[in-house]
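Researcher: Let's do a round of design. I'm pasting the structure tokens now; please hold your answer until I've finished.
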């Protein structure tokens, strides 16, 4: 099936297409229209005009639009899940979960927008003021450019489209090149809805050329991007004076205290490190373990990891399948070998086939190894021995990244310390740092980004406050 372009509400065929291959089977699973910088500019021009009618549209209709799309997605749940599996080799059981989360994200966007409001201001509260009628409210920014990654090719689109559209903006979406058909099918649901705002949503495909044309244009007011730090820095330089929402790389860590339930911690760490083949911004990458329980925890973690089924993404009980491409697999393999050559121990067998790397647990890893100091984005987790939480938190905070960390402990004082001292956007207690609920604010500090996602918080990012004073 072909992933076509949408210039506003008009679906348009292009003169040339490229093939998308399933990372596991290497079979062609979709064809995508090849777009140019001129296509990006054309989509932005349409969005600029549509932003006027989008802003004037009635909120109740925009909310009905979101709920209609959610219902349509619910009806085609299995087809959408199969498409995700086809394009990025996400195991089918997890692809279905992503569809369900996407539905919730869209519904939450409508529910939060219904109650989004401003407030009145007491302008005579200070001696310099005087009594007036003053208030503020939120209005849409205008045009939003949304650029999304491969690891959650459906739900991360929803995290941008639904808040932007329900807030009354027009959007141009450039999805990941690895999952064009997934994006096409979701956008078509939005555009085919009888409640849709005409031309408020456009869809173009491409890499750097198309992306640069979108972010450097003077038309969009908001750039919402999820992806690498390298690309995030390029966008920051190219965008100029715009609102930026950047969800970038991570290097998630956890600490296992001697007071923790080791069996529980090991089972949750196995899930957090290897779900989606470690290709998640908050995949657990670094585990700091109290020296008194280090060997016990390492043995238990290796045992838990051996339970994870690796294989075809189409098998119902597969936990892990192929990485997104061969280049990613080769990079991960080089980093593993480099760590072992420098003294690390592999606690699990190192096996690969069909672009699939079996989960790798490395022990006795040092902070200067690539598998620790860089974002691995692969099924690799590293264990490091520490004397206490004081030692662990300084090492956890030493990274330039900071999306989410966690600790496993039954020490209340340590819990309080972690909440206030860990330099991240989110702290999780007695769970993997990979835990994320779509209703929460989500985003990092340091090089991990700017702004917050989650429907309510994304609506705030994609709207402007207007202040009014009546004298």
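Researcher: That's everything. Go ahead.
Model: Designed sequence:
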């Amino acid at each position: 099936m072909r992933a076509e372009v949408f210039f506003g509400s008009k679906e348009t065929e292009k003169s040339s297409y490229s093939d998308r291959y399933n990372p596991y089977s290497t079979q062609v699973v979709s064809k995508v229209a090849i777009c140019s910088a001129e296509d990006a500019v054309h989509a932005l021009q349409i969005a600029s005009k549509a932003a006027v009618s989008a802003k004037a549209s009635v909120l109740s209709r925009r909310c009905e639009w979101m709920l209609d799309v959610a219902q349509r997605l619910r009806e085609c749940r299995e087809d959408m899940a199969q498409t995700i599996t086809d394009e990025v080799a996400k195991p089918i059981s997890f692809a279905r979960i992503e569809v369900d989360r996407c539905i919730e994200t869209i519904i939450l966007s409508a529910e939060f927008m219904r109650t989004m409001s401003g407030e009145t201001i007491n302008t005579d509260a200070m001696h310099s003021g005087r009594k007036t009628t003053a208030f503020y409210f939120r209005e849409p920014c205008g045009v939003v450019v949304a650029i999304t990654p491969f690891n959650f090719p459906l739900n991360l689109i929803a995290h941008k489209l639904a808040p932007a559209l329900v807030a009354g903006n027009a959007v141009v979406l450039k999805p990941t090149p690895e999952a064009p058909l997934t994006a096409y099918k979701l956008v078509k649901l939005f555009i085919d809805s009888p409640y849709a705002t005409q031309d408020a949503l456009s869809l173009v495909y491409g890499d750097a050329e198309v992306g640069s044309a979108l972010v450097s244009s003077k038309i969009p007011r908001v750039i919402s991007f999820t992806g690498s730090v390298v690309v995030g820095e390029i966008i920051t330089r190219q965008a100029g004076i715009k609102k930026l929402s950047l969800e970038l790389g991570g290097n998630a860590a956890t600490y296992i205290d001697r007071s923790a339930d080791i069996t529980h911690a090991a089972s949750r760490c196995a899930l957090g490190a290897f779900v989606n083949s470690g290709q998640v911004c908050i995949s657990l990458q670094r585990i700091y373990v109290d020296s008194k329980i280090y060997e016990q925890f390492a043995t238990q973690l290796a045992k838990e990891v051996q339970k994870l089924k690796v294989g075809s993404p189409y098998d119902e009980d597969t936990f892990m399948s192929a990485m997104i491409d061969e280049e990613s697999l080769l990079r991960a393999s080089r980093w593993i070998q480099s760590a072992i050559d420098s003294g690390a121990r592999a606690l699990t067998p190192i096996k690969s086939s069909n672009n699939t790397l079996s989960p790798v647990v490395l022990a006795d890893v040092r902070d200067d190894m690539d598998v620790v100091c860089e974002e691995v984005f692969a099924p690799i987790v590293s264990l490091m021995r520490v004397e206490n939480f004081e030692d662990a938190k300084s090492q956890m905070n030493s990274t330039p990244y900071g999306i989410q960390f966690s600790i496993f402990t039954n020490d209340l004082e340590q819990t309080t310390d972690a909440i206030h001292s860990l330099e991240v956007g989110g702290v999780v207690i007695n769970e993997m740092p990979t835990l994320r609920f779509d209703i929460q604010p989500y985003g990092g500090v340091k090089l991990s980004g700017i702004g917050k996602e989650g429907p309510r918080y994304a609506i705030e990012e994609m709207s402007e406050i207007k202040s009014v004073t009546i004298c």
